[in-house]
Write the structure tokens for this entry.
Amino acid sequence: EAGVTQSPTHLIKTRGQQVTLRCSPISGHTSVYWYQQALGLGLQFLLWYDEGEERNRGNFPPRFSGRQFPNYSSELNVNALELEDSALYLCASSWGQGNQPQHFGDGTRLSIL
Amino acid sequence: QKEVEQNSGPLSVPEGAIASLNCTYSDRGSQSFFWYRQYSGKSPELIMFIYSNGDKEDGRFTAQLNKASQYVSLLIRDSQPSDSATYLCAVNMDPKSGYSTLTFGKGTMLLVSP
């Protein structure tokens, strides 16, 4: 069974640019979560999608947005990139809502120059 | 503010010893508790989850939960050098609304020496 897949693995952007990250969940999983892991800050929750709807949002500005497609894959969009957006962006998926364990993809490492 | 606290370490143990990793959380209503292992430069890997008070064992790993003390721990028996990694404690902080958001601690680095 394939795990959570993310693309691309690495990205280098400059300030002010826009970026789109992609995630495909484990087959059968309907919930997709996005997390940011910046150096020294730990894993921070960004967004949660389930059944195509945004269910919860972390404490991030509106330039962080995303969506979930009918096949449950998801995109994370970041506009007007800032230096502090440099981080590992992790996607996780779970079977449904609530207490279900989340499984992570390998992440996209985003570097802002 | 809802928080998950872990000792950053490093926790150093010799090969074959028991490693004990601890985590406290601030939300008394939390119901789901997870341990992830993260090797340097890699993504977190789920190794244990626990929902009820008491112990849950899986191979060399035992998760312990005490909701009254708001405390969850992970024991690793017969520690191996390959267990050297950062261990992240994660807690579902908003179960009443049905949300699945996880709040992570900053992790404890474990070093197992041969």
